[in-house]
């Protein structure tokens, strides 16, 4: 049994540790293959604590997806006020080469593992995907694209395709091709 001081310190920040463990395990093993036993062991929390924070594994997956949307590489990049809207849209594709970028994209992985419309996880993925498209639409509008929704849809399709392609092709080549295509989309839309 852990000393009282150690037990108390493990109780603090349990939610964050659970989400961190989930991110690690979901990326490595997938959503369905990751069990509650894995999650509580890696997060260093009891199953009871895990279920106090998340009533079910689906609730944990949904919370992870929402957190990724807010704080993941794309969320952080799109929120950078020091870059022009156009630059943020292009940097989205450059960022794919960053090793910190999760491949496969957790939203695409969750959509593949939970393909049934109406499933709570699938609907959470759809919501995050819509928010991503809305953020790109807002940036395209700020960059003065006459058809910001169309521009955003094209960039999202390109981004998702690049994320998928990175699983089977040379990352540097995929990133270079995606960046070049994004440049063309933005040139046609804005210039």
What does this structure look like?
By secondary structure, this protein is an all-alpha fold. It has two domains: 4-54, Orthogonal Bundle (Arc Repressor Mutant, subunit A); 64-190, Tetracycline Repressor, domain 2. The protein is built from eleven helices and no strands. It has helices at 4-11, 14-29, 36-43, 47-53, 57-71, 73-78, 85-94, 106-113, 120-142, 148-165, 171-190. Helix 5 (57-71) packs parallel to helix 9 and helix 7 (85-94) packs across helix 9.
Number of strands: 0
Low-confidence stretches: 1-10
Element order: H for helix, E for strand? HHHHHHHHHHH
Mean pLDDT: 89
CATH architecture of the largest domain: Orthogonal Bundle
Strand content: under 5%
CATH class of the largest domain, named Mainly Alpha
Radius of gyration: 19 Å
Tell me, what's the shape?
elongated
Structure class: mainly alpha
Tell me the CATH superfamily of the largest domain. Answer: Tetracycline Repressor, domain 2
Give helix % range: over 70%
Helical run tally: 11
Query: Structurally, how many domains make up the residues?
Result: 2
First-last Cα distance: 66 Å
Q: Under CATH, the topology of the largest domain is which?
A: Tetracycline Repressor, domain 2
Short synopsis of the structure:
It contains eleven helices and no strands. It has helices spanning 4-11, 14-29, 36-43, 47-53, 57-71, 73-78, 85-94, 106-113, 120-142, 148-165, 171-190. The longest helix has 23 residues, at 120-142.
């Amino acid at each position: 049994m852990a000393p009282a001081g150690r037990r108390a310190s493990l109780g603090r920040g349990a939610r964050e540790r659970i989400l961190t463990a989930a991110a690690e395990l979901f990326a490595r093993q997938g959503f369905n293959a990751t069990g509650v036993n894995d999650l509580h062991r890696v997060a260093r929390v009891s199953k009871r604590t895990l279920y106090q924070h998340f009533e079910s594994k689906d609730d944990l997956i949904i919370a992870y997806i929402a957190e990724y949307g807010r704080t993941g590489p794309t969320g952080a990049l799109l929120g950078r006020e020091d870059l022009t809207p156009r630059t943020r849209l292009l940097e989205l594709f450059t960022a794919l080469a960053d090793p910190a970028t999760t491949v496969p994209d957790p939203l695409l992985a969750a959509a593949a593992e939970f393909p049934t419309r109406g499933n709570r996880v699938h609907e959470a993925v759809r919501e995050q995907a819509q928010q991503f498209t809305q953020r790109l639409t807002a940036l395209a509008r700020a960059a003065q694209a006459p058809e910001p929704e169309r521009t955003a849809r094209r960039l999202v399709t390109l981004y998702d395709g690049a994320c998928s392609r990175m699983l089977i092709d040379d990352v540097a080549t995929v990133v270079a091709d995606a960046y070049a295509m994004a440049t063309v989309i933005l040139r046609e839309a804005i210039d």
